[in-house]
Predict the structure of GHMP kinase C-terminal domain-containing protein.
Amino acid sequence: MPRPHWAAIGHARTALGDLARHAGLQIETPALTTLCDTATAAGAAAKSSGAGGGDCGIVLAPAGADIHRMLTEWERNDIRHLDLTVQPASGAIDERERGEQWG
């Protein structure tokens, strides 16, 4: 399950869904819905990314997420992923230095 401070990603996805319904628009394509739902089921946080209507999403996965399950399901649905990591900027405080455990 995503860490509590990652809940903002889920809230953002919900807000975008509400906006789409109220405006009569489709922001999340079927592929993005699969990407997000599969990531959430695997214990990650996910939402669409970009201007909407395309097939770009972002997933943040903690160490305990079932990445293999997620990627297998994505492959079955022709969803491609970029394996990216975020590095702190020079001089930034590493989260481990603040005492948080990332696993």
